[in-house]
């Protein structure tokens, strides 16, 4: 039977982050092939709220001919209920930061990191496929019990980078110094401390 609908669910959908971008790019890909696709979330940030439906709407929609793709990057209370939905499911796994990185810094994040791995194992029991964005993440899906896995890199809209550079930034960088850029939040798992040590070694 031809897939007519491929809905996506992420606990939180925001503008400009990796998971949100992946949701929108996959949706655009489905639309281009005539497959209906809507986005559902427990929380949609203000910039995308009009483009995302409440996840409970899934309970009232037809299941026949529909695939539900569940994005997982952290534990979330709704994922227990999502695992029980009758839809054919696949999981798109973006990696859950190990809980020990949050120990002593953010108890909420530490707890939901642990919960996320429990939920991932629960989803493995009901999902037909686990999709990872890297081989490293695919092996983690195997460890928690997914029978079928695949690696599908995150879709990137490269045209979004085809913009004129900011003149002020160009002026700032137009000197003889070497500039080193580290992208990421200042969190232990982003290893900014390693960047600082590397810069010291570079100097």
Provide key terms for this protein.
33% helix, seven-stranded parallel β-sheet, two-stranded parallel sheet, 203 residues, 18% strand, alpha/beta
Structure description:
With 203 residues, this protein is an alpha/beta fold. Helices cover 33% and strands 18% of the residues. A seven-stranded parallel beta sheet has the order 5-3-1-6-7-8-9. A two-stranded parallel sheet has the order 2-4. The longest helix is centred in the middle third of the chain and has 18 residues. The N and C termini lie far apart (61 Å). The mean pLDDT is 92.
Mean pLDDT: 92
Shape assignment: globular
The radius of gyration over CA amounts to 19 Å
Helix content: 25-40%
Q: What's the SSE pattern?
A: EEHEEEEHEHEHEHH
Largest sheet: 7 strands, parallel
Query: In which order are the strands of the major sheet placed?
Result: 5-3-1-6-7-8-9
Task: Output the number of helix runs.
Answer: 6
Q: Give the distance, in angstroms, between the N- and C-terminal Cα atoms.
A: 61 Å
How many β-strand stretches? 9
- Overall SS class: alpha/beta
Taken as a percent bin, the fraction of beta residues is 15-25%
Identify low-pLDDT runs: none
